[in-house]
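Look over this entry.
=====
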Amino acid sequence: MKLRSTLIQYKNRPWLILCGLAVIILVLYGNAITNEFTFDDINNIMHNDYLRSANGIAQLAFSPVRPGEVLRGYLYRPFLAFIQYIIGSVFGFSPVPFHTANLIFYTLNCFLLFLFLKKLFNERIAIVATLIFTFHPIHTEVVASAVSITEMLAFLFSMFVLIAYLKSSASIKYLAIVSLGYFLALLSKETAILLPLVILLLAIYRNEPLRHYLHMGIWCGVPLLIYFMLRYHVIGSFLQSMETQIPFLNNPLSTMPFFERVINAVHILGRYLVLLFLPVQLSADYAYNSIHLLISASSMLFLISLLVHVILLGIAFVFLKKNTLLSFSIIIFYLGVLPSANLLFVSGTIMGERLIYLSSIGFATAMAGLYWYLHHTWNIHKNLLTACLVIILFLFGCKTIARNTDWENNYTLFKSAIQYYPDNAKANYNYAVLSYERGDAEACQRHAEKTLSIYPDYYKATMLLAQLEIDRGKYNAAERMLMEVPSMPDNIESLHLMRGFIYVQTNRFTKAIELYKSALEKIPHSFAIMYHLALCYFDFKDYANATQYLQQAIEIMDHPDAHYYLGQIYLIYFDYNNAAIHFAIAISSRQFGNMSILNLIYCKTQLGEYQQALKIIEESIARGVDEPDLYLLAAYSSLKMNNIPKSQYYFDKLRQSGIRSCTQLRFSSLCQQLIRGIRE
């Protein structure tokens, strides 16, 4: 009896529910913590310089979008950026802290959902619905994708708002929480804009008096007004920057007439319902041509989807008062997905599992309601229903754990996408690029060609095939391909660099110079174009122009490779002081690091700074640099300092490595001097 009373005492303790959810979520998503940054994580977190400083966050929040800032042209989420800045500053901008943060936020969200449903309905409904929501594999994108913390934050503040409203819709304190929570939800993700409609739905259920509707309008209207003022100031529009356009590949509905767009949007809403009931063919990307577009209202897929939506919405409004659970489930599904459904306006993507994160509450509550309805109305034994629920949760959990491995890295992610949606043009192209980076030219070519067979205007795939031809030394074939590629704002640099490389490899330096100069007229601040133009002049032995363009390139980007070539030019003119300055910077170059060390040491020897030269040599050897030229310079410097034993030591090391393996002709005279000096 004592044990039983203890269990009853702790049964309703919220912290036990929270701990239980934490354990479940760790089991379900623990294998996602060590995943790499993938897909949108790369641009939004890994390469997002704004997140590296408080000034950057302030710019995101208050500075107007500049031309060319495509990402900011779509999104205004400064509070999300602030949270990412905190995580990165404290724990580092690496995948593990961000994946861990997602697990923590997901745990809090599931717990807040439990509290909300318990307050709105009862604990039995809340427990079953929360378990279904927690285990559902459609949430793997939200949890496993680091950038989807935006969904987490919007959901988190939405739950705070709804719980606060249910606590007391007439209390100034709770209404203030509603107002603040709504504002933070908006600053986390734009889809939170429809949260007042969810509150309105709750008000109808609770038969709130008219004055409560007015209170709600004021307390939600003020943060909404402030949000739109800030958004308009930064982006220049209430929706998206007027300069940005939604890429066709991301959302082919963006170019459709209104009626055709609605037909396909209705069909896609039906696909969301299918994925909630059968989460089998899940994908990180549903870009063109994953979903075959409909062009007629007579399409069977459209008619079936429309019929299902009409029936569900009809049931929701008929039973708005009679069956609050069923009507709530249906309405919350449609309200949650409406901002990104391509019905009211064009969304940034045609479809995405993360977009129904909030909507999936409706599925979870509907299934929980069905569970208790079958038990109480049809008298189905509770143990049988519980067994069925456990089986469903087990299957959901297995799919979730397996699905996390798809997000291990970009290669596994897009491999999974084309496994379920082989006609996805964007996924095929990304998989081709990743195959190229892994050295699998055959897979690269196969999927690049597949991309073009799906979408012939995908010029990036053509450029990738041209790169394969360049790697094979088939410059004429590559040039023919590149001539067919249109010059676009996002490919001007890469297109001109590829064509210029072909001209250089085929000894058409004059043509390469003309090409690079024409490119600079369009993109004058391109380091790569400026740098390669300088190299053309360098190869052409026009060192005056080479110096001019290298210096301009360094003004754009202080890159060590440019310093290396400047050092080479000064070396040609026997200006060892300036050469040494640039070689010292060029040591950090991946390509020319060792050569820069050798040239720096050579400059020091020519300046008579043998002690400094020897110090650099010994530091380089200690770091593992193993170059015969290094031993030659060490022996020579030691000889000049009259340290014969050390000179003899390094000369022996040089002979062991092989004097003939010395790479720089200019060192031959040093070698002769060295041999004479040691003999004497």
The chain has a mean pLDDT of 88. Residues 536 and 542 are 9 Å apart (CA to CA).
